[in-house]
Sequence to fold (128 residues):
Amino acid sequence: MSDTHAVLYAPHGLIEAELPLDRAPHEALVTAVLAWKNPDLEPRDYEQIALQLTGHARALAADVRCHAAALPKGDGRRALAEVVLREADGRLSAPLEGTARCAQNRARLVRALYTRLDRLTEPLQAAT
Fold:
């Protein structure tokens, strides 16, 4: 195994625009994390789960942003998406912690972003 790795740099989010979201496993992870009552994991495990959810939330936010930008400025769905995206930006800028609370907060964010994405894409799905 090599000690080298590649870092992808996409300041305009073009990488995310090309990749489809792998929704089912992330929704399952969100469901599992939000079902925790008294989890007893190591801090590094919580941090790894939060990292996974953070990465997916960033890709999901880029998708929501793209769909919202395609709507007219006066469209209420766009305005609501912008509110959710501002909230997402704030949450994603917070440092990760190795806690259940942090992982659950990231899970709630992923859930909120999927809800918003579904509302943005409903008319497109209904038209087909």
Summary: Residues 124-128 have pLDDT under 50 and may be disordered. The two ends are 47 Å apart (CA to CA).
